[in-house]
Amino acid sequence: MTRFSGRAVIVTGGASGIGEATAARFASEGALITVADMNEPNNLPQGALFVRTDVTDEAQVVAMVEQTVAERGKLDCIVNNAGIGAAMPTSILPLESWEKIFAVNSTGVFIGCKAAIPHLEATRGCIVNVASISGLGGDYLMSAYNASKGAVVNFTRALAMECAEMGIRVNAVCPGVIETPLAAGALDRAEDRDHWMELVPLHRAGQPGDIAGAIAFLASDDASYVTGHNLVVDGGITAHTGQPNFIRRQAVRSSSGN
Ligand SMILES: NC(=O)c1ccc[n+]([C@@H]2O[C@H](COP(=O)([O-])OP(=O)(O)OC[C@H]3O[C@@H](n4cnc5c(N)ncnc54)[C@H](O)[C@@H]3O)[C@@H](O)[C@H]2O)c1
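# nicotinamide-adenine-dinucleotide complex -> structure
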């Protein structure tokens, strides 16, 4: 497929996990990729540009966007994906940790959008932000992360209103649990993992490619009438009311003869 043939696409946080898979997916469909990350990628797509960038630093982000436009002649899409996690009780969470999480997960998205908008207006391009299902509800011990991703969810809606006037679409994906270095700690222990996968209706962790496919859809012409949307890609976990899984419980009862 060549849905993105000749299109210039920036992926922040593209050196690892979801960002790496997204850069690879766009490149495989013909895009000219810029990976913007603090760390050098191990797997940079052929022909891609790597610009070492801290998304919390506005000057660095502006320079990275300008370099992309200088090399590619335009910008068609930015995927604001860079993010960090944190898990700690709120009562002992250092203020610096709260501020750091917001700086990367929320302010970093704002800075990326702000820098890209003037160039996207010229191409009638699009923005895809990477939020999380953690921006749609609460998790245990993750209040700062939840709040930072909630900001991305509503920023995406608000920016879509503003950018519609310029012909720029703005959407986000809300991944559930995805097998990347960021989630590794929470998935490492077999018993924790089994418990978690029991709660996911599709009974597996998502792969980075599952999210890359959703991001590519939102950036594609197939989504030309989609804007202001937060697309949940979570194996069904947020569709669940929390009621017991009667199908599995019945199966367990039958196998034990009760
Ligand atoms: N993995 C999951 O289960 C999951 C679920 C929901 C949402 N997300 C979100 O997906 C996005 C990608 O996460 P991932 O799971 O691929 O994690 P990851 O740790 O594999 O990748 C994150 C990338 O962001 C980069 N990065 C971090 N801070 C940066 C900064 N200040 N400037 C530039 N780059 C920076 C890292 O170097 C890394 O390459 C994040 O926004 C994360 O919150 C992940």
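# post-check
The radius of gyration is 19 Å.
The chain has one domain: 8-255.
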